[in-house]
Amino acid sequence: MVNAAPVLFWLRRDLRLTDNRGLFEALNSGHKVQLLFIFDTDITDELPADDHRISLIYDQLKLLHEAVKPYNSSLLVKYGRPAEVFREVFERLKPAAVYTNEDYEPYAVERDEHIAQLCDEYSIGFEKFKDQVIVHPRDVLKKDGKPYTVFTPWSKKWFAAFDAERLSIYHSEQHLQQLAPGNYELPKLDAMGFQYNPREIQTEFPASGLLKNYDDQRNFPAVPGTSRLSAALRFGFISIRKLAKHAAAYGTFLNELAWREFYMMIIYYFPHVVSKSFKPQYDNIRWRNNEDEFARWCQGSTGYPIVDAGMRELNQSGYMHNRVRMITASFLTKHLLIDWRWGEAYFAQKLTDYELASNNGGWQWAAGSGCDAAPYFRVFNPELQTKKFDPRFSYIKKWVPEYDTFNYVKPIVDHKFARERALNTYKSALKKA
Description:
By secondary structure, the protein is an alpha/beta fold. It contains 19 helices and 5 strands. It starts with a strand and ends with a helix.
């Protein structure tokens, strides 16, 4: 028997109909289910009109909208502040509950608490489920109940908790007949103030050959040795559970998934890292913050080919190879002594796969200020990194074709000088702590 009042399933970072935990629970609640997505203006108001991630989300919503038509249903897509949207929807649909999947970022946690309070005001249930991680942040803690701050001991417990054979798959796609009838139309992008700027991403799971060679090839940016699935995971186009099952036999690849969840755990328990160093003493660093040098770094004109190749790849494609992310981040924070927050914000603006926890964790790792970070005296030598990971200059030639001509810019700073300056600056800051 189906209850008359529908429930809402609030789509966020889980834009798929298959193996969607929260959707599965909603479809099995005994109620008809109305799918809801909100273009949250608290987020979108900070984005440029041509932000390609908005188009990426919009295209996926169109696919989902078409996929539910055979069930005489449709997506309800709204644009506005979540609380205002929910008040309007509550008044119109009188739902019995809101179902959604958990998000661990500080803004999302605060937003969900606010919506839960709003649901209480309307006597509406609010149900959240674990979906974007294999192991919940609360399920991997030290014996004293406190969160880990070092990856290795945390990962041992994470891997101990991971069991591919027992990992549940939630076949939400088998229950779509429970979707509520409706014929809503999607809002137009331009009506929300955005321009269509499409970008393709990888959604197919990596072949066994790539996974087998992942450990050997993942650090070479000219080689197609990574899955390129970070954007699909970020927006939930694919299931983390299915991916983990698919890659269960390949420890190095699984370790990368573990790092993703480690940083989610860190930002969940230590939300101050969004704007401050994980290690407070690193906020004593006297950054140079030279705006002209920052602009050259952003443009990919530092005179260091591997750095410039990475920044040009980012600017043109919305992607940057992970090894090169580490090199460019180290260069900005150590060679140029520019605040890691500047670089993190630039990556946040440009990366298709931008995800706050991983981006923040990566930048603080490079700057030395994060949990389990590279020591401050570790300063990547771009030339040595090139010799090791792009020895034939294949990656560099693709993105910086003029690198070996007279037209290429001279280095913005001497490596030896920059390294000594960084070490002295860091030492001085840490002595004050």
